[in-house]
Amino acid sequence: MIQKKQEMTKSKLPEWFDGEHYTKGETVRNRFTGEKYELTAEELSMYDFLMGAQMVIEMGMPKPTIIEDLKKGLEWFRINNKKAYMVLLD
Question: What is the number of structural domains in the chain?
């Protein structure tokens, strides 16, 4: 079952965000539960940034700000799409 964002808001990415800015959204699957959620372009940009940051941290190669950026990105998701956060990141 694909869950869709009920309130479509155009949340701009924060100034500190240095990831890729996508122009189209996509459906993403939680790698542990298999649950799916449709993300906007901005949400997908942040989601991919968070997954990449997590991978870099797990590999033991974080740049000095990556952990702080990861925390800020998770907070951005909680504020901008709490449901997607709960399905994909919690």
Answer: 1
Which range (3-12, 14-23, 25-34, 43-52) has the least confidence? 3-12
**Residue 77 to residue 59: CA distance in whole angstroms:** 23
Residue 37 φ then ψ, to 5°: -150, 140
Helix (H, G, I), strand (E, B) or coil at 29: strand
Residue 18 CB coordination number (10 Å): 10
Question: What is the CB neighbour count within 10 angstroms for residue 48?
Answer: 16
The structure's pTM equals 0.84
pLDDT value of position 11: 63
Give the residue among 67, 72, 76, 68 at the shortest CA–CA distance from 39: 76
Nearest CA-CA partner of 76 in 58, 53, 56: 53
Question: Which residues constitute the domain of residue 23?
Answer: 2-6+16-88
